[in-house]
Amino acid sequence: MDRLILADTERREIKALLNVSMDIDLNETKDFELSVHRSAWDDTYQYGGYIFKPGTEIGGRIGRLNTDTALETVKVCGLTWRGMLNRKVIEPPAGQDYRRISGELHEVMKELIEPEFEGLFLVSEADTGVTVKNHKFERYTDLLSGIIKMLKSVKYKLRITYQEESQRAGYVLVEAVPIIDYSSQIELSSDSGLDFQLNDIRNGYNHMIVAGKGELAERNVFHLYAWPDGSIRKTPYYTGIDERVYVYENTSTETEEVEEKAREEFAELMNRQEFTMNTSDLQMEVGIGDILGGRDYLTGVYMAKPVENIIYTTDAYGTMNVEYQLEGED
Questions:
Q1: How far is CA 39 from CA 2, 69, 280, 309, 313, in A?
Q2: What is the pTM of this model?
Q3: Between these two residues, 60 and 268, which has the higher pLDDT value?
Q4: Distance between CA atoms of 28 and 25, rounded to whole angstroms?
Q5: Whose CA, among 126, 220, 263, 318, lies 20 to 30 Å from 270?
Q6: pLDDT tens figures, 21-49
Q7: Residue 318: which pLDDT band, with cuts at 50, 70 and 90?
Q8: Which stretches within the chain are classed as H helix?
Q9: In what order do the strands lie in the sheet with 245-249?
Q10: Which residues contact 20 (CB under 8 A, 6 or more apart)?
Q11: How far apart (Å, rounded) are the C-alpha atoms in residues 83 and 80?
């Protein structure tokens, strides 16, 4: 592993971290844990200080120290950069139901991110050439989820790297970049030396009755229907023996948001494909949001899934293991 750096609360570099083990979960728990041997401990590990590996997403801000005199190590823990974005909220403007935004991707990201972080997070100045128009964020969504969902709507993803500076403190560079669909370039199979599990579900629900607020005949009720292409529509396709009905009740969500929540729930219940891959031996560099695909030549089943999380672990000698988790994988 290249240098893992410890910096103070002003992001001034203190030292390279040697002989420490690390576990950093970028996008699920969104935190990191360093194990420092008690004999190597000193007061340079500060609350509000930083760790980072320059040029990568590996890094975050120290927020917790865990010490146990019965153990030989001290745990230094904190949030990843995504974890910090996750702790901010996109609020609707006063008097409005939703926050809406329009413009070039980096311009709108700059408006959302930079005021929250006092120079720590900087959005790229490059023009992506891609815009959103009147994009509506969910009410009080966290900043990370809101931005990822916005970018995904135009087939982009979030890229985060820590940038070193020679004359001033470094910063976290945030960029919007296109999602790479590796499944259209490289077909992974058992011939690649990778094991994976494919689950092709054809007996899911295809008719959802949505029951929202209200009582009895006055209750807000409408219907959603799954179609063979995976879309959700207001008109039915499956009937008779092939129809499978699910009742979704939601009396706590505002009426105008019920359909959005119902569609999200429906997508988890209808016909779908589940794909889990042992990616520990994956010999390619992929980012969160990129798409991997695999085929079982025996059954002919093929499917593709986006990478949802990356976990890095190192031992005290700096040997790194990388685990890629796909969407829907525990």
A1: 23, 12, 32, 33, 22
A2: 0.77
A3: 60
A4: 6
A5: 220
A6: 999 999 999 999 999 999 899 999 999 99
A7: confident
A8: 81-86, 105-113, 143-152, 255-269
A9: 232-233, 221-226, 207-211, 245-249
A10: 4, 34, 35, 36, 37, 40, 316
A11: 5
